[in-house]
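Hello forum,

I keep getting stuck at the same step: I have a sequence, I want structure tokens, and every attempt I make locally crashes halfway through. Rather than fight my setup again tonight, could one of you with a working pipeline run this one for me? It's a single chain of 310 residues.
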Amino acid sequence: MSAKSLANIIIITLLSILPLLNSCSSQPETPPEKSSVSPQKKFYLGLIPEQDLFSQKERYTPLARYLSKKAGLDIEIKILSRYGNIIDNFISGQLDAAFFGSFTGALAISKLGVEPLARPLWQDNTSTYYGMVFVRKDSSIKSGQDMKGKRFAFVDKATTAGWLLPLHYFHEIGIKDYGKWFAETYFTGTHEDAIRDVLDGKADIGAAKNTVFYRLAAKESRISAELQILATSPPVPSNTLSVRKDLDNSLKLKLKNILLHMHEDKHGKEILDKFGAKMFIETTQQDYEPVFTYANEIKLDLKKYDYRNI
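Reply #2:
Ran it on my machine without issues. Output:
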């Protein structure tokens, strides 16, 4: 066989097997086996500025870690600069849940349809708080008439104790236009600052929640010794974990059950002890009735209410 003939045979053979080679190379690769472990979902939990930001983070971080582990979520805490930010963040879709105060909770129920799950039962067997209007004992302020021309320290337009209570109090004692009645009114941003402003004489009258007042008083004797309570509100739910209405129902139930049974778990009980609570108890929309009643009596429509401070 000549060299030319041999070359022809090789070329013909290669041409005949080329389609087979192309067919083999075009087969899709076998996809890698999927991991049996699902990645954790980022879950954003909001906190209102009840205390300074450092204290809030220090207090709630162990609880958030416990929920993360038990629920299989990657919970990230967002400590907000003011109370109304919780409503804004829910509207913009940046939060999945939050520990609402009573007024922000009532607002979020009315505006967004959030679902309350559970709130702490504290070591003193309370699960509620109340608002207080207070003055310095040496101020001689005893009545609405005595308040005329004075300075009033609110907390925030989205709080029961630091806004709704004083408005209702003004309504009861006949102050129709507080803006004209007082020489100055302003928002402190936190309950702690409202208490300190009255204590230090920056404001003549203030309003805040009793839990913060007595927590500070336990550390600083001046607060109980120098401040006097003029009025209180009915009890309202303490800060309650509530979730967005479109959160998966199974996840809602899981989070609720984790909280309600937390005290039965050794590690959970340790966290509760440091948090200052005995356990979590179930919370529903009905628990916010005192807030809705107060708002109705002063003709404040929560669905249309503008909670932004001005």
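DSSP finds 13 helices and 13 strands in the chain. If your local run keeps crashing, start a new thread with the error log.
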